[in-house]
Every structure is written in C-alpha cells, then in structure tokens.
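look at this one:
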Amino acid sequence: MPVMDFNIATQRFFTEFTNVAIPAFFFMSGFLFFRDLADWRECFPKWRKRLKTLLLPYILWNLILLCLVLGAYSIPSLRPQMSVTYNVQLSSGWFLDRMTLHPIMGHFWYIRTLMIFLLFAPILYLLLHNQALSFILLFILARCWIPIDTGVLSTEGALYFYCGCWIATHGGLPQAMPVWQWMWIVPILAYNHFMPFFRPGCMTVPGGIAMSLFVGWQVCLLLADSMRTRQWLLQLNQHSFFLYALHAILVSGITLMMSRFQLHTPLNSFLAYWLCFAIVLLTCLAISYLVKRIAPSCHSILTGGR
C-alpha cells in the first residue's frame, strides 16, 4: 500500500475510535444528570454541582492557555505562529469570546455545548414524562439528525444527550450480559476499523457507533467485576481530565515536529502514529500525577473534583 493511502487508512482507523467519543460523552452526561431525577426542581442542585465540575474547569483551563498564548505572542519569533493558530487579537472582545462562547481550547466545545444542553433540563424533564411527546421528540431527533455547528451550539451531541436522558428516565442501561451474547458484534466492529487498510474507499458499517457504545458498556461491566481492575480504573480516572484537556495541544505540537520528517514507508508512518499516542498519553498522565502530588487542591479544582 502506498504511504499516502496508508496514512489515510490509519487516520480512518483512529477516527472510528474517536467518533465514539462524542456520542459516549453526551450520552453518559445526559444519563447521569437525569438518573434518579424525581422532580424538575431537582435540576437546581445539580446545576450548582455542575458549576464546580464543568464551568470552573472550563474557565480555568481556557484562562491558562490564554495566558500562555499571549505570553508566546509577545515573543517576536513566535508571534506569526500564534496569530495563525489562535487568531490573536489584543482586544477585550476577543479575550471574552475566547473565554466563553468560542473557547481558545477548541476541544472544550464539548463542555460548552453540554452546559447549554443542561440549561434546558427542566423542559426536557417535562417532555420526557409525557410518553407520547418523548417518543415524538426522539423520533424527530433520530430522523432529522444532521450535525450543525452554529459556532456557539453544535447539534452533534443533541441526539445522544437526549437518548441518555430518555434511558435514565424510562429504564436504565442494560445489565451485564454473558460474553457469548454480544461477542458476535466484535468481528463487525473489527471489520469496520481494519477494512480501510485493505479498501481505502470503503464505507463504515451503519450503526457502528451504537454497536461500539453497547460493546464498550459491556466491556466496562466485565472489567468492573474484578475488584483489582476496578480500583485501577478508578485511579486512572483521576487523571482523565488532564488527558482530555492537554491531548489536543500535545498532538498539535508533536504533529508539527513530525512534519519535518519524511515518512517514506507505511511502517514509519505506523510507528509515528503510535509513538505520538504513547507520548501524549504518558505526558498527560505524568503532568496530572505531578500536579496531584505537589498541589492536590489545585488538581481537584482543575478537574472539577474528579
């Protein structure tokens, strides 16, 4: 396979995994907010909790990066790169915009959009407890699902967020099932992920995201059965927000450095992708561990108490 086709196939391979991140994030966020919600007035204490777990980290991380960008912008040799990457404008309007609606940490649009969705929680609660209206809205969102990014609110997570709310209200997540009952889905997902290496133009399997979410949930339940594995996952979860916050910046920096090297073979390209993955993962975990060790209260604030 030519190195260009291999690069495209590798990107497709990783994209199939990352495509599950948005649905999983919004689905679980909706589910956790509406779980055990007995009255629409209970949204208010949950909102107060989200001020700590969502809004405060959102502001602080954007403020940290904003200060770093402005510091780099003050260095003449770095100013052109900062202007291109972050469209720096020394004005109060730009500063406010980058701290709120259009975060300078671009991938924090997840949190921004989720906070906007949560503002409609009382209305959703009333709709969800009207069985006819809840089904109609679910059908409309599923039938007319078209990702639209208005620059402030992206509709990409709306369907998944609503599904999480709906399941929390009308039932619950599926319980652990015997492995043999869902293992047949794994070869389909494997086909979905690996086929781009053999047929670069192939399409993904319809329903792949839903199947990935289901299998991922069953795997989590399977791992949770082991107390040792559960403790390890809980410890790892303490550092997950740092991985989310820092990964995009690190990937951009590593990609910029690797672009200077000529990757003439598929093997070199493959190794570069996995080297980038390992560097980003280990760096984020190391930074989170050091901050938690040196300044645990600061770590708690930056991660929303996670």
About this structure: The radius of gyration is 21 Å. The mean pLDDT is 80. The CA atoms of residues 32 and 190 lie 29 Å apart.
